[in-house]
C-alpha cells in the first residue's frame, strides 16, 4: 500500500490531536465509517525508533466524520519532541504474513546550502 498520508503539523496537531484525511478510514480494521462505533485503536510502529504506539482514531458521532488521532497522539508528539512545521508520514505496509502494519515517520525541515530538505527528527 505505502503512504496513506503526509501532514505538516499545526499547533492543534502538536498540542491536542492530529486531523487525518477521511479517505484513510477505509484502511483501518473495523472502519469507523462502516460501524456505529466512532473509535478504532491502532498499533503504530515508529519507523525510526522501532517503538509501538497506540493511537485512537476517532470521529464525530454526527455530521461530517472528521477523523482524528486522539488518545495516544500527544504522548507520541512529546516523546519525539515534535513541533509546528514538522511533518509526519503515515504508512500501511504488508507484514510478510498476509497482514499489515501501520508505521509513522517524523521529519523536520532543514536548510542545507540554500536547499530545503526533510530529515529524520532525532530522538529526544
Looking at this protein, list some descriptive labels.
mainly beta; 124 residues; 2 helices; At1g16640 B3 domain
Please provide a written account of the structure.
This protein is mainly beta and 124 residues long. It has one domain: At1g16640 B3 domain (Beta Barrel), CATH 2.40.330. The chain is built from two helices and eight strands; from the N terminus they run E-H-E-E-E-E-H-E-E-E. It has helices spanning 11-15, 73-80; strands at residues 2-8, 18-19, 39-46, 52-58, 68-69, 87-94, 100-112, 115-120. Strands 1, 2, 3, 4, 5, 6, 7 and 8 form an eight-stranded mixed β-sheet that branches. The longest helix is centred in the middle third of the chain and has 8 residues, at 73-80. The model has no long low-confidence stretch (mean pLDDT 84).
